[in-house]
């Protein structure tokens, strides 16, 4: 599936037995963190993020502007938009597409049954074609200012979302929203069939977790050099360790066993979250 050119700089990427740790940064231009450029890039992903597979494949020179406006309106009208939750979901979408080359399975916008209804459940539903078949990537994101609060909240959410009854219901919702013309439809439906044990599903499922936070390293530098990379590495390594430790402890306390699923952790350090939200908001409204 075609996608916009890569924008984020991958400033850290480590593969562990428990999953991959990745950090992305927008980088700098003329001594300034690329806030505006990041917002512009995010808008390039709107159609793929918000539209169905059938709508995407129908885009041509005659309806490209109309379909882009539709995508912008869909994002703006969701219940999460007031809290800017959709921006976190958009960055999660971009990150896993760029880094892991995932394939979107279901647009989270289409979980809604009415305008302004809060979109619940996982924050992304993608797949990856692996050596053992199709893998389901169900993502979680927190578009926050403080990384410590983001870690606390996302750990609680993941533990809650991995309840058997919650997962079964979520898989049913996903099945109901899969576009019938999507090439991977039959295989994903087969994986999510209620008759398939979660023990089997967990072997083909992972959770990418994306957290944003305001970074002292990002705000205190003006170029991507060794000094910046060393400073940001100290920040992110603490965050990775805390998230994985807290999540493992919380899951075992809740269910009495170790976490049975692979977790990929993606961090996006920001210079100024408020400024980024303001720019994203302007770009999104302009597209409508």
TrEMBL record:
Source domain of life: Bacteria
The segment(s) forming the Anti-bacteriophage protein A/HamA C-terminal domain are 7-284
Q: Read off the InterPro entries from this record.
A: AbpA_HamA_C (IPR014976)
According to UniProt, the name of this protein is Anti-bacteriophage protein A/HamA C-terminal domain-containing protein
Organism for this UniProt entry: Rugamonas rubra
Q: What is the lineage of its organism?
A: Bacteria, Pseudomonadati, Pseudomonadota, Betaproteobacteria, Burkholderiales
């Amino acid at each position: 599936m075609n996608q916009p050119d890569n924008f984020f700089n991958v400033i850290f990427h480590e593969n562990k037995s428990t999953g991959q740790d990745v950090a992305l940064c927008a980088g700098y231009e003329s001594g300034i963190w690329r806030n505006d450029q990041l917002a512009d890039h995010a808008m390039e992903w709107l159609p793929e993020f918000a539209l169905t597979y059938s709508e995407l494949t129908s885009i041509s020179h005659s309806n490209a502007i109309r379909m882009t406006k539709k995508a912008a309106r869909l994002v703006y009208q969701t219940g999460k938009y007031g809290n800017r939750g959709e921006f976190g979901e958009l960055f999660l979408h971009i990150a896993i597409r760029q880094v892991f080359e995932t394939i979107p399975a279901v647009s989270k916008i289409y979980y809604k049954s009415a305008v302004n209804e809060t979109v619940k459940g996982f924050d992304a539903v993608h797949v990856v074609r692996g050596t053992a078949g199709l893998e389901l990537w169900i993502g979680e994101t927190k578009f926050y200012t403080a990384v410590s609060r983001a870690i606390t909240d996302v750990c609680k959410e993941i533990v809650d979302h991995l309840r058997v009854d919650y997962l079964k219901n979520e898989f049913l919702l996903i099945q109901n929203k899969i576009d019938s013309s999507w090439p991977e439809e039959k295989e994903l439906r087969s994986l999510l069939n209620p008759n398939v044990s979660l023990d089997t599903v967990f072997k083909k499922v992972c959770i990418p977790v994306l957290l944003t936070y305001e970074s002292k390293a990002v705000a205190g530098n003006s170029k991507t050099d060794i000094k910046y990379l060393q400073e940001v590495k100290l920040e992110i390594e603490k965050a990775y360790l805390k998230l994985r430790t807290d999540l493992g402890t919380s899951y075992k306390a809740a269910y009495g066993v170790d976490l049975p699923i692979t977790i990929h952790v993606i961090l996006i350090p920001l210079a100024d979250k408020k400024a980024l939200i303001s720019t994203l908001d302007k770009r999104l409204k302009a597209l409508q």
